[in-house]
Specification:
alpha/beta; 20 helices; four-stranded mixed beta sheet; five-stranded parallel beta sheet; binds zinc ion; 509 residues
Length: 509
């Protein structure tokens, strides 16, 4: 007796359908798993047989062959337990389930037959829908996540018995109703209203978010760099449905969705420690999974204490910063993860943190200061559009009763500037914001008059700026003009943009 069921496995940020065949034949009792399964899949045969027995069913007693197809792609993890068990029961009980092929199944089994949550259910549900399945049966804890996908019915199950009896028509399951998606739900725990003072930094942050520019903040410890960074997602435009699904998929694959949560409706804020490995940051590893830059997709990647990161780690960041995605080479081919984020980096002006501070004395030698700064390479800095100094907070700002402007008020202005960009790039593929303009678009949309050109030429010369920095200044100037709804870039927009190259000017010479 041969039973066939469908499941899916995650590769990159998507899933592909996996066909599982279980054949029960006569002969010596042995279970053979074929089709390139990894250790976790091989281990599953013990779990599956025990779970089947403990659920009150029989599993084939003769020679049982389990085949997972396609054979040429590696299958990882325990998520095939549930479909394998169902097919085994069907094969041994000689029950022909006519609707088996209209379902997709995913779930890990506990020894008592309970169904445990697995990672990546959202991409698996999307794939099931794409393959024309009528319904997907998933662990109850993952049901909300799968139910996001329209056009396919989701059933959450608690145990193996519930699933099998439902398929036989002996039990009823209620389809999971998805939580409605709401763009308006921007309930962040922090708000810019909490930040007093730091007007220049806040302005720079607003410009950065308005045009999706990368940002670096320099300032002494305690000046509020992390506090500012954490609030950046709160002024970004709310995620559209498509972005929310994309973000949720990534966090689903990594198993970072909180229990019974469906959409990730808030933009991610990732803040990896400086000891992070290259694999941790970029993704990859033996159990292929996305790294921090992909977890930050559609949100913010905050690198605090930038010079403390390994130089090699910072170097590998350069390519994803340019491309907004990362490709990881594997023996079985390469996988590409999305990585479109706003990078926010922070550093102290020197190892002790008080270089240039008027009240506290810096104890670092000039060699120490130079060495510290040189840990961040010029080419990486070149890719960061906006540099801003975050000085120690004035006493009067700290004690004043005047609270800062709220995130929602700033977000409204950001939205207006993004609106202009959306119209501008409506017809161009790939570009959605000023920071991502191609050099051709730069020529079209960042034309400047003669006075401005002189100003830029002078700045280039005096600050010894690279050609890349020149283009960055124009892009930032375009964003500043958009924030005023100005059709053309004027000298004032340009000087503000030039001023955001402070690191080129003050610190790195
Ligand atoms: Zn110092």
């Amino acid at each position: 007796m041969l039973a066939k069921v469908y499941s899916a496995a995650v590769y990159g940020v998507d899933a592909y359908e996996v066909e599982i065949e279980v054949n029960a034949a006569s002969g010596a009792p042995v279970i053979v798993v074929v089709g390139l399964p990894d250790t976790a899949v091989k281990e599953s045969k013990d779990r599956v047989t025990t779970a089947v027995s403990n659920s009150g069913y029989r599993w084939p007693k003769g020679r049982t062959t389990i085949n997972l197809a396609p054979a040429d792609v590696k299958k990882e993890g325990p998520s095939f337990d549930l479909p394998i068990a169902l097919a085994m029961i069907a094969a041994s009980e000689q029950i022909d389930l006519p609707n088996f092929d209209q379902y997709s199944f995913v779930g890990e089994l506990a020894l008592d037959g309970g169904v445990r949550a697995v990672n990546g259910v959202l991409p698996i549900a999307i794939e099931a829908k794409r393959c024309g399945k009528r319904a997907i049966i998933v662990p109850e804890e993952n049901a909300q996540e799968a139910a996001i996908v329209e056009g396919i019915t989701t059933y959450g199950v608690r145990n193996l018995r519930q699933a099998f009896e439902f398929l036989c028509g002996n039990a009823v399951l209620t389809p999971t109703t998805p939580e409605p998606f709401s763009e308006a739900r921007q309930d962040y725990e922090v708000d810019f209203a909490d930040v007093r003072g730091q007007h220049a930094a806040k302005r720079a942050i607003e410009v950065a978010v308005a045009g999706s520019h990368h940002l670096i903040m320099v300032g002494p410890p305690g000046s509020g760099k992390s506090m500012l960074a954490k609030r950046i997602p709160t002024i970004m435009p709310p995620m559209a449905l498509e972005e929310a699904i994309e973000t949720t998929k990534i966090h689903s694959i990594c198993g970072f969705l909180a229990n019974k949560r469906s959409f990730l409706s808030l933009r991610p804020f990732r803040s990896p420690h400086h000891t992070i490995s290259d694999v941790g940051l970029l993704g990859g590893g033996s159990n292929l999974s996305p790294g921090e830059i992909t977890l930050a997709h559609n949100g913010v990647l905050f690198l605090d204490e930038l010079p403390e990161f390994k130089r090699s780690t910072l170097e590998v960041l350069r390519q994803p910063l340019e491309d907004a995605k990362v490709s990881i080479a594997r023996a079985s081919g390469s996988v590409t993860y999305p990585a479109e984020f706003v990078m926010v980096a922070a550093l102290n002006p020197c190892p002790c943190g008080y270089f240039g501070d008027l009240k506290r004395e810096c104890r670092c030698s000039s060699v120490q200061v130079q060495r510290y700064r040189q840990r961040v390479s010029g080419p990486l800095l070149d890719r960061i559009d906006i540099h801003v100094e975050v000085p120690a907070v004035h006493f009067k700002d700290l004690t004043g009763t005047h609270s800062g402007e709220s995130s929602s008020a700033i977000r409204e202005r950001v939205l207006a500037a993004r609106d202009i960009q959306q119209k501008r790039f409506a017809k161009s593929q790939g570009t959605r914001c000023n920071a991502r303009m191609t050099s051709k678009q730069l020529k079209t949309y960042c034309a400047i008059d003669d006075d401005s050109r002189d100003l830029l030429r002078m700045a280039m010369h005096e600050l010894n700026l690279s050609a890349r920095a020149h283009d960055r200044i124009l892009k930032v100037a375009r964003t500043i003009a958009d924030m005023e709804s100005a059709p053309n870039i004027n000298a004032q927009h340009l000087s503000e943009a030039i001023q955001y190259r402070t690191l080129d000017r003050n610190l790195w010479v």
